[in-house]
Amino acid sequence: MATGKLASDYEAWKKLQALYQSKRSSYVLKDLFAADPERFSKYSVEFKTSAPAVDILLDYSKNLIDTEVLAGLFALAREANVEQFRDDMFAGKHINTSEDRAVLHIALRNPPVSEGGWDIKEEGATTGVQEVLAHMKEFSEQIRSGSWKGYTGKAINTIVNIGIGGSDLGPVMVTEALKHYSQRNLQLHFVSNIDGTDLAEVLRQCDPETTLFIVASKTFTTQETITNAESAKEWFLTSAKDKAHVAKHFVALSTNTEGVTAFGISEANMFQFWDWVGGRYSFWSAIGLSIAISIGFDNFREVLNGAHEMDKHFKSTKLEENLPVILALVGIWYNDFYGAQTQALLPYDQYLHKFADYFQQGDMESNGKTVTKDGSRVDYETGPIIWGQSGTNGQHAFYQLIHQGTKLIPCDFLAPAETLNPIAGGKHHEILLSNFFAQPEALAFGKTEQQVVQELGPKQSQNAALVKSKIFEGNKPTNSILFQKLTPGTLGALVALYEHKIHVQGAIWGINSYDQMGVELGKVLAKAILKQLPDPKDVTGHDSSTTGLIHWYQAHRNK
Ligand SMILES: O=P(O)(O)OC[C@H]1O[C@H](O)[C@H](O)[C@@H](O)[C@@H]1O
């Protein structure tokens, strides 16, 4: 098990620090490429599987690394026991130490043991998963075929997923990413925010006779979700009148049977999962019901299968060829030695426009920690700020800062070789991909004096200041990830790739990537404050700022 040791105490860490200090000026992409014509083939690796057919190329050659840096990074992974910690996760050990839980989202995409899956000895992890998947298959097929009827005998044509955080972001991202495979006569909506506007605007588009509400909440205690679900039920009953009709229009995805039944949803309409599924790793579980309804169960299973292939790769490939490990280590090089604060995810595929949003929770909630598992305060940076947008939109918005700003922003570029929408004879995709190739090239190599002089011509080049102002150094690092096509299997593999990257980084930093105590404290405080809001006299126990703000609100609200 990862010990919670400070990463900065590892010998390999110290060596990397020394390397960075003494040789940083030699990590210049222009020179590194000039010196080694084999750099691309040396620093790229392909992940290829046949069932499902997934083909992903990771090119990490445009990074500020050489063989020595890489050797140091792999040594760090070994010294931090990354392999052991990975195996502990797969074995169901309780690596989420603060909550004493296993971390087994990998079990959710595990095929049945009879089909070669791992046998994981944790409640539900082997047979339970298959049972819930069978329930999801049956139910999603009933909705898609129209055989599930609403209270007036009409088929369902609108699905509203009510959930927040992991119970929202995963289904949102995946249903967007795989929209191409969706059943287009089913309208999908997601309500997450407690702000009544979110629910109100969605309900305007719904007909109670043909709407299915999916209440998605691991704990079934999350204030936003329960409040939204109660209000949705009230809205529904205004038309349906009879509470017995709720059974046809509300289902729940949760670990909390008691909470679900207390809400008025019967156990038969509940899709179970387990406490070893972290919210931000949960769309592989029952939380993915809206995905299965949208794209069909077989496609949903392909998402799981693609992820399972990546799990196998992560588990059995040596570190030097292991995609998640490579991404994690290169990320650590910038995060901890160069002091980069962020990591941009830039998919050149419009279907992936929610990919960065999704990993904002996945990465930042996992690795936004300052204390290691043994309680020491870290003296290095942990989780980066994750952000991004789909290309080429980002190019016309924030790329300038990546190109020439003072901050180092390592970027991952992702793109499919084949588009799902080859309109205008494939012209759009060629233009899109020319940008996908051009941006990392420009970031890496910038614009040299020679290029500027050539561009300006002999006369204007006399102006030294002008020439100087137009040169830019480049040397901005990127990873490029090319994949064949955005299929369900490929999406599953890509998401698992980033999940495991997060796991490896957390292991090296010695932190618990699987709890979220900061978020939980905010929830507790909000509940306490809610009770004090009716009467200013009740506002006690806060600092003067919080008290002042609450009092101002109380004086200004329109009650
Ligand atoms: O699924 P729920 O129990 O409603 O939780 C929803 C979300 O709550 C919090 O924000 C947690 O930090 C998230 O990890 C979780 O996904």
From TrEMBL:
One Gene Ontology term from the biological process aspect of the record: gluconeogenesis
CDD domains xrefs: SIS_PGI_1, SIS_PGI_2
EC number: 5.3.1.9
This protein's pathway: Carbohydrate degradation; glycolysis; D-glyceraldehyde 3-phosphate and glycerone phosphate from D-glucose: step 2/4
Keywords: Gluconeogenesis, Glycolysis, Isomerase
Presence of the UniProt keyword Isomerase in the record: yes
Molecular functions per Gene Ontology: carbohydrate derivative binding; glucose-6-phosphate isomerase activity; monosaccharide binding
Catalyzed reaction equations: alpha-D-glucose 6-phosphate = beta-D-fructose 6-phosphate
Entry-linked NCBIfam families: PRK00179.1
Family: Belongs to the GPI family.
Protein name per UniProt: Glucose-6-phosphate isomerase
